[in-house]
Amino acid sequence: MATSSKAGSVVVRKVKTQVDPLIEPIHKRLLAFVQEHKDSRLAPLLIMSPYLLYMGVFFAIPVLYMFLVSFYTNVSTGTMEAALTVENYVTVFTTSLYVDTLYLTVEISLLSTLIAILISYPIAYFIVFSSWKYSKLLILAAVAPMLVGNVVRAFGWYALLDTSGLVNQITNVFGINYTLLNTKPGVIIAIASVLMPFAVLILLSNLFSINQDLLQAGQSLGGNPLPTFWYVTVPLSMSGIIGATLISFVLTMGTFATAVFIGMPQVPMIGPQIYQAAAAGLNWPLGAALSFVLLAVSLVLITIYGRIMDLGASEGGVQYNLVSDESAEIGRQRAFSLAGVLEKLPFDRRVVGTQTLGGLLLRVSLVAAFVFLLIPVIFAVLISFSQGLYVIPPETPTLEWYLEAVNSGRWISSFVVSFQYSILATLISLALSFSAAYTIGRYDFPMKQAITSATFLPLIIPQIILGIALLIFLNTFGLVGNIAGLSIAVAVYATPFATQSLLIAIENFDDHLEEAAQMLGADEIQTFLRVTVPCLLPGIMSAGILSFIITYSNLQIAVFMQGPGVVPVPVRIFSQMQFGATPIIAAIATINIVITLVAIMVVERLFGAAEALGYT
User: Fold this and answer.
1) pTM of the model
2) How many angstroms separate the CA atoms of 362 and 347, rounded?
3) In 209-324, which ranges are continuous DSSP H helix?
4) Where are the domains of the chain?
5) pLDDT value at residue 225
6) Same fold yes or no, 89-374 and 400-616
7) Cα→Cα distances 166→6, 169, 189, 578, Å
8) Is residue 169 within 8 Å of residue 180, measured between CB atoms?
9) CA separation (Å) from 192 to 111, 120, 328?
10) Which one, out of 17, 77, 104, 313, has a CA that is 20 to 30 A from the CA of 523?
11) pLDDT in tens, 112-122
């Protein structure tokens, strides 16, 4: 053993002796370049240039090109002619199918968003303000469904709401015979569940930032928990509620998998109509026009909502400043008119030991909210071990569907494809996000806030629009239907997530470690490679795992970028669902869930759930 180790050391020294002369000139030139430009005004631009170039080419240009294509003329299937015509927009607004679908999409989006916010708030509130030592682990439970992917959750809701599903089995016991599948209430319920992880994350970010002293002050001035919650906590968390509402609404306007599985064709939404026009019908100009109408309607409604909220706040302030003292006192009395009623409610009464009625109701609400959030995922897992789609619970657990999946060449091919492009997309997103996060976290430069906000743009634009934009643009370079195109496309969507994760790690990094290394003789490159990168490694790995999960589970972009022999797992699930749900889909969904949970557990062990998401 000792001889082998000694021989290995000799080999390493020989390799190092041969490589050092080759690396040294490169190191010197790179070091001279770094030392010359590290404090220049161009440093932020140079470091962030990979991110800016990539997002400019594969995000900004495709979206602008799609806008131009919306004025083209569709010649035949898959071909178009450059022309400046509004024919496609006229078609959108004069076709009753599209107008009615757009109206229905807005209606469903509003109701789904409202339900999602109401149910998500108790989860976020409990995680932040509970003294339970495991409350932070609930962050994982809240985020996990989002990372599993919409297609898996849509399958779960399909099996739950179908004629023979669990919901119907329960309602039939009470003599109620009503199937929620392919109905507006069913679509609203399913979409609200899908939105919840996004709403919880935004609400958590806001509630964690609230100064606890303000809440304690409210209670010390005589307010019991309920008036304090209503008059202190809710107003302080209003910005989070508004943010969660806006993001949830935009996501719902472009929803795809849930709309197809739960609603179509009886309850059409605009996302599937865009897919039908662009991908199925190969009428790209019409699909582009539909996409921009969707985007325009979303932005107009968001602007109106934001304006109403701002106007309400400003009018309240103006009125308070201009009225007389007597009128102001009357206004304050009216504003707090509910205080007396809230104080009389027995929410602080002890019901079980030290448990108050308010605390008990909060916990019941929390359990109900998590059941609503997780039940489609849990149901999909149970089906995978059942003898049939609706044999719940399984009479005798079986691995039949897993064996069928393993022995299926199509599913194995899809897993291989998904892993290939997810790994490549993860590497791309890591490189891009590190350049962006390092620049934003370490430098002050003009328009820093605007550029920081712009890193969220790929998340704000509905994925269905991003998918068709990339389809139209990348097709001109032959990058549709192959691993390279898939990797490039999904990396655009994954990079903002990785950027935010790395930005958190960089902002928490202690700069004094770099100063100490340079005082001990290390140059800038050595300090970066031997101090900065190792210290940021947990954050880099967390960002990488997050990017992998997001790219692996993506459907709305991948469905446009697929091709013969290049069919990712979510796309194959989507295709199979067109012919009906089967237990083998549940087995594939469960495998995806396991992959996601393992990745989440790695993040938790490396970085901690709260820390990885910035809730410290």
Assistant:
1) 0.80
2) 10
3) 212-220, 225-228, 234-236, 238-253, 257-258, 270-275, 284-322
4) 89-374, 400-616
5) 64
6) yes
7) 66, 5, 15, 21
8) no
9) 8, 10, 40
10) 17
11) 999 999 998 88
